[in-house]
Sequence to fold (74 residues):
Amino acid sequence: MIEEIESVFAGTPAIGPDAAHSMAEARFLAIGKASSGRYVFLAFTWRERDGANLIRPISARYMHAKEVQHYERR
Fold:
């Protein structure tokens, strides 16, 4: 799944804040297409380590058909 998460960010995912779960740190949600062609839903946060900005995945899953249809309509 790590490779699929990376491939989502290599594309053009839809990214927005995850206000409902951002109490201790800023969290974000991303929806995008992996290199396998499957749509992935991600929750993540940004981290900085040794001057580099990193993405720390919190949760990732494949999207259901109804979610994909809703996403593609937007």
Remarks:
- Residues 22 and 28 are 8 Å apart (CA to CA).
- The beta strands are 14-17, 27-33, 39-49, 52-62.
- The chain is about 25% helix and 45% strand.
- The two ends are 25 Å apart (CA to CA).
